[in-house]
Amino acid sequence: MNRRTALTGLMTAPLAGGASKASGGPSFRPSERDVRDVRDVLIRGAATVLTMDPKIGYGLLGEVHGADVLVRDRRVHAVGQGLDAPAGARLVDASGKLVMPGFIDVHNHLWQSSFRGGCSGQELDGWLDDCHVPVLDALTPEQIFWFVLLSCVDVLGSGVTTVVDWLAPMPYPMYVKYFAALDRSGLRFVVAASNDARDTRLVPRLNRELVSSCPRASLQVAGSAFMAALGQLRADYGAARDLGVMYHCHLLETGDQRRGDPVRALREAGALGPGTLAAHAVHLTVEEMALLAGHDVRVAHCPLSNMRLGSGIMRLPELHRHGVKIGLGQDGAANDSSDYFALMKTAVGLQRAVHQRADVHPRIPEVLYMATLGGAEAIGMDDRVGSLTPGKAADLIIVDPHTANFAPRRDWTSQLVLNGQPHNVSHVFVDGVEVKKDGQVMSVDAAETVARAERASRALHG
Prior knowledge:
By secondary structure, the chain is α/β, with parallel strands linked by helices. The chain folds into two domains: 3-28 and 103-378, Metal-dependent hydrolases (TIM Barrel), CATH 3.20.20; 38-101 and 387-441, Roll (Urease, subunit C, domain 1). The chain is built from 14 helices and 17 strands. The protein has helices spanning 3-8, 124-138, 141-157, 172-185, 202-209, 230-243, 262-268, 286-294, 303-308, 316-321, 340-355, 364-378, 412-418, 446-461; strands at 41-50, 63-72, 75-80, 90-93, 98-101, 103-108, 160-166, 188-193, 217-223, 246-251, 276-280, 298-301, 326-328, 396-399, 425-430, 433-437, 440-441. The strands form two sheets. Strands 1, 2, 3, 4, 5, 14, 15, 16 and 17 form a nine-stranded mixed beta sheet that branches. Strands 6-7-8-9-10-11-12-13 form an eight-stranded parallel beta sheet. Helix 3 (141-157) packs parallel to helix 4 and helix 11 (340-355) crosses helix 12. The longest helix has 17 residues, at 141-157. It is globular, with a radius of gyration of 21 Å. GO terms for molecular function: hydrolase activity, acting on carbon-nitrogen (but not peptide) bonds.
């Protein structure tokens, strides 16, 4: 596996363990939390609710003060003052706290917690060659389960409720363990999976046997955008279109990737459109920005990863002026942690530093929009998540501002981005189920997960 295939998913993975369910191969069973009854919830007396719906509250963030949020049948039922609790509903006191939609991470590689802190002096190619590739080649299904689960605990703790995870091809038993970890976590997840070069039926099989088994799971097709791989690009984009899902590729993360002429490859493959999500998009020309915007291509912005690897800084204000839909992504180990508050703050701060202006896009409300409804729009899920609009899935968080890093109150909206830290997220609900309560992740034994990940790391790295 070389640096390009590691990044873009062109390698050919062995298909060991690839027997179908009918022949006794690995199978997947959804978590009990998805099949049992879930109680209605009334979140009472929040000081501020950011609904992300201007029809409910005021401004871009749909802000409401002194309000309740009622969850019924796993969905947001109502936002308002003095709501009545249905019989048997659980009451959650949000006095003095903020309630908002959960964060949406539109580009990640959760398994990469397996080499956190590694290759810290490397740029992208060296990081891939010395950390990413050797670790991925050595991982076992059991090890990948614990590393993925470790990352899930981390992202949930930071208030993420939906994560898009980009996967290179891997043996089928690895996919089974990967899905098992994602399911156990309680996250809503989108798996961007790659077809094996020898088996174009792999992604449809994953969709049939794994994704369709979990109500919180969705699918994308992962691939590459290079002229040298134009045939594979056409096949992958065609597979995504046939399945009715998005196509997800890395695009111009570094300047030297221009040698592969990726934007031309997307154009010639007919893969420019709202069904394509392009990660990074750091080194686009003005003409390419206009081309992507004209075809409604969606973009994942990964500022912490780009900064860590010295890849460059996205021309975010220009993409915004072109009307491109953009969400925020953490991008695996190159993000170093899953602190979504740091991700938002960096997205704001980098542009201010480059432009030497404080009013440049994204301003504070705009980055909060990108983190929630904007992210949902980027991945085509804004009809289901991203705001507290009644009828949408009850994916929401409660933020406690009464801590040394957050207090005293002045402008809570700004403080969310500039002062917030993962420990301020006291509660997380995904699909109406409480997966973090009073600061503790409930869906996973965090101590056991850390211990098992440490054990797996010692086996990998010595």
